[in-house]
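[job 4471] stage=fold_predict status=RUNNING
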Amino acid sequence: MSPYDLTGRRALVTGGAQGLGESYARALSAAGATVAIADLQDRGAEVASELGEGHHFVRLDVTDDSSWQAAIDSTVAALGGLDIVVNNAGLEITSLITDINPDDAKKMLNVNVLGTVLGLKHGLRAMRPGGPAEGGGTIINVASVAATIAFPGISVYSATKSAIDRLTRVAAMESGKLGYGVRVNCIFPGLVPNAMGAGLANDVSELGLFDSPDAAVAAVVELTPSGRLGEEKDITDALMFLASDESRFVNGAALQVDGGMGM
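[job 4471] inference complete, writing structure tokens
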């Protein structure tokens, strides 16, 4: 049972069909919120169905402005409003700087940076006074510990996640100055041994940066004062705090959930 009460809240989670996004969606639902899973993967519909009656799946390309508008309209209609937006969708393509493929760099910039920009744009427009879900709310952007460390092989990804931190702070300031009533924060998850984390360990090993995937993981643990990798629940608990009223005076913040790796 969740320690947070989000009964009556309506949430949209991008990239909610798998990984941490799915964990966020399930945690929000367990706390009483109704959730729209926004994703390009059909599995998003399965997750929404598993969450139960009232939950919703909406197909969303986070890099497309019109797709965002349609997703917000669909979510507000299906859930009866919108109180929480989680900009979670992200893409990581590992490469040495000397071998970066411009197309891969553009993909990461589009999904990670533009996707967050558009999520902020449409989330704020929906929840501000006069919007279709007016009444305020909260937006949580998902950055990464990669924004705070110099880990080899993920230069562009790191840059995109650093951008999310800056976007968060400016959006929080604009929302406050203009009286939108929407708090904007972000979290910096540490490495989690899910499919994305395992893929990164394999990739940096194949690039010759570490002797093996296990050695790459050991290097991450060595850099982490808590002495272990993160678990999905570690990250999800932090997000739930930011989604709840317990964080009502937390705004424009970057919450590091990385066991101290990025301190």
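[job 4471] summary: The beta strands are 10-14, 34-39, 56-59, 84-87, 137-142, 182-189, 254-257.
[job 4471] exit 0
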